[in-house]
Amino acid sequence: MTAGDATATDAAVRNGTRPAPPTDEVLVACQDAALTFGRGQHAVVAVHGATLRVRAGDRLAIVGSSGSGKTSLLHLLAGLEQPTSGTVAWPALAGPRDTGLVFQSDSLIPALDVVENTALPLVLAGVPEADARDAATAALALVDAAHLAERLPEEISGGQAQRVAAARVLAQAPRLILADEPTGRLDHTTGGRVLDALLTAADRTRAALVVTTHDPAVAGRLATRLTMRDGRLLTAEGAEGTEGAEGAENTAAAAATQETATQETEETS
Ligand SMILES: Nc1ncnc2c1ncn2[C@@H]1O[C@H](COP(=O)(O)OP(=O)(O)OP(=O)(O)O)[C@@H](O)[C@H]1O
């Protein structure tokens, strides 16, 4: 990212003035993407051929129990993992670097205060410190955390740390925000606030938002819900095609539904 990008980012985040992208733009497309860890008898298939498209403006929850493959799928969407087979592409983005991943684990650096933590990725990308700090301050305001700017990570709560982790991604103004269990370790009220912050920020910065969760209440806040079970991407209500799939007209759901139908055919033939 260049300094010019940072200024534009700052302005877009602060003012919500990023031009609205065409809503049919495909930001990331998985085609039959699989991810296997290990080899031979130790191989674990974390994701079985997933087909999914996320478009600008999508609000997508990927729901599943622990070990179902949600994080693995999110890492494929973020370009952090290469698919073992199939493809992942970012047709409307400059590549996976235009995505922002809010990690599951607390990843703030203890020696840096909140605004420094939030600005760090921009600084590391070569953005002048003052511009990075301005963008960070604007992003913290988006998640209702501006008042925490001067505190160290040890001086804030778990829920506040999650909001800061979200702000750190939002400061980069990604067009695709990927959040891995952002409410996982939080109580209901605090988790709700973190989700509020992500939804508000995604609206303000006109980003698509994909959230993994095991919590149906969290998933219910997103327009489209898909389920992962044993590494397979299903529709919202199970593996039986379009029936009951929330927002089946949504590309993400429709693509996964199509995939589910394909899988069903393959498995029964
Ligand atoms: N780096 C890895 N090496 C080997 N196996 C892995 C690795 N990462 C994940 N797995 C395995 O892949 C499967 C899917 O894991 P993944 O973390 O994607 O699931 P998840 O639904 O995100 O679970 P959780 O909610 O507990 O994070 C699990 O069986 C897990 O043990």
From TrEMBL:
Among Gene3D superfamilies, the record links this protein to: P-loop containing nucleotide triphosphate hydrolases
What UniProt keywords are attached to this protein's entry? ATP-binding, Nucleotide-binding
Q: Which InterPro entries match?
A: AAA+_ATPase, ABC_transporter-like_ATP-bd, ABC_transpr_LolD-like, P-loop_NTPase
Per its record, how is this protein called by name? Answer: ABC transporter ATP-binding protein
By its UniProt entry, which Pfam families does this protein fall under? ABC_tran
Q: Composition bias, kind Low complexity: at what positions?
A: 1-12, 245-263
PROSITE patterns associated with the record:
ABC_TRANSPORTER_2 (PS50893)
Disordered: annotated segments? 1-23, 237-269
